[in-house]
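User: Good morning. I'm curious how S-adenosylmethionine would be positioned relative to this chain. Could you predict the structure with it bound?
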Amino acid sequence: RVKGKWATSRPKYPPTTLALQHFDVTYSSQLGHLWPSVRVALLSERKYGALLNNFSLNDVEEDLASQGCRDFVTDTDRKEHVSMEQDPEVEFSETSDSTSVEQRDTFGQHQLSQPHLSPTIKCFVFPRGDITRFKPARPDSSGLLGYYLMDAASVLPCLALDVHAGHNLLDLCAAPGGKTLALLQTQAIRFLCLNDSSISRTSRLKKVLQSYLPKELLTREKLRITSFDGTKWGEIEQNTFDRVLVDVPCTTDRHSLMEDDNNIFSKSRTGERRGLPQLQLQLLLAGVVAACPGGEIVYSTCTLSHIQNVGVVEQAIHLARENHGIHLKVVDLRPLAHMFRNTFHFASDVQLGELVIPHLAANFGPIYLCKLKRLS
Ligand code: SAM
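Assistant: Good morning! Here's the predicted structure, ligand included:
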């Protein structure tokens, strides 16, 4: 047997294999009988959405529609009302003996009205089961691209943030900028702070913004781009923003199964991976402190991990009160999930927030999102 030249330096198990082994253990117990089908979807080609760029002069909407795509944001049955045994804004109280939170139904059976959504965020997708790929976007006469390709479920945290005219907004972990672009499509933001601790990724973010936005929007009066450690944001600015997006670094489940390069499951990054829930908690707390009283925060990840999703939110609710005297209310996102149930598969048993789980016929996600409102 001839040994390969680099046999000694090559890892026995590549990081993608280690990731799959890890997910098989944790997600088979977390998702039970659902895991085998979610596993197949995660290992198959993902589906994209085309986020429409309202600032481009190209009329791509007609072109996309002629290819059989539809805008999933507007193409829902909005007249339908949802009957659920819960108030849209649910209060959470801590149980005395643990840090877990208990969901309390304050008003019993309710007819929920549809959530308010920005009519200007549009994201085109091919129908269920159709795995056609989008062509690369083309520049218009001023060089601006007509759409941005991203996981369509990544638009949900931006819709959930519910930006209104005149809002000040912080995007704490913004690079490479997909969600920033979606938020900017609202054309409602008064001032936008974009931050990402990685300098190289911040440069990528700037390039993305230049490819999609007219120069008039990229001024110091409207936009600030920084590369701070987001966990320290509370030391810089407190009680300031109407809306905060905390889209944290996570195990990026789909990417970790596909790419060995720069994989969070590589042996050299074990410490970093194990430290993720703590980093996520610190980032979420910093986002909570940066929001103004009455302000709203959306926490999001692209992992199925309960520890990185619900676990982080539970701890943040507890620590915000204990360490900062900030009371938080969890906003029920079930009306939003119900509205988009024909486009995405939502997990049915998530305690806090909503989780889009990959499915072969609608291979988006995983995307977890949870919305918090500052009461004090
Ligand atoms: N929101 C982005 C988008 O939609 O394109 C994706 C953000 S990605 C999931 C997480 C980002 O967090 C990475 O770009 C990473 O550089 C950044 N990050 C990691 N640690 C951070 C920290 N301590 N402070 C701020 N950003 C951090």
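Residues 16-77+85-374 form a domain with the Rossmann fold fold (CATH 3.40.50.150). The longest helix spans residues 15-31.
Let me know if you'd like a different ligand tried.
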